[in-house]
Amino acid sequence: QVPLVESGGGLVRPEGSLRLSCAPSGRNAMGWFRQAPGKEREFLAAINWSGYSTYYADSVKGRCTISRDNAKNTMYLQIDSLKPEDTAVYYCAASPTGQTFGDIVGSPPENLNWGPGTQVTVSA
User: Residues 66-92: what's their mean pLDDT?
Assistant: First the structure.
């Protein structure tokens, strides 16, 4: 199995935007999580295999958009109106067999495939 790799992180000013990428997206459900220093890993968003069904955590609903381009074998997370509290390592995850976003939201972390993460720092 080809490892997942995130990209697109970096330093961004408050109220800025960022688009994270994760490849390869494969043909199963995928999701984004983040972990801030001293905090537990937090679920952000999930998407089904086709890209037509998505699910968001209340904490980011309205500011984040998850999407995927299966032709490019890549999943994305657009984050707008970034705040300093969005500073974290952002991870993508994939279900090894499931195709619905429930297979991301409802799966124990050890049952998902993870990328190494990409750092996002929001600071003036």
Answer: 97
Q: How far is CA 62 from the centre of its chain?
A: 15
Which residue in this structure is represented by tokens 């705040």? Answer: 83
Task: Tell me the per-residue pLDDT of 40-57, one tens digit each, with 9 for 90 and over.
Answer: 999 999 999 999 999 999
Q: How far apart are CA 13 and CA 122, in angstroms?
A: 5
**C-alpha angle 33/64/40, rounded to 5°?**
25
The CA–CA distances, whole Å, from 99 to 17, 28, 110 equal: 29, 4, 17
Can you name the residues that pair with 32 across neighbouring β-strands? 45, 92
For every residue of the chain, DSSP letters joined together read -PPPEEE--EEE-TT--EEEEEE--TTS-EEEEEE-TTS--EEEEEE-SSSS-EEE-TTTBTTEEEEEETTTTEEEEEE-S--GGG-EEEEEEE-SS--STHHHHTS-GGGSEE---EEEEE--
> pLDDT, tens digit, for every residue of 29-44?
999 999 999 999 999 9
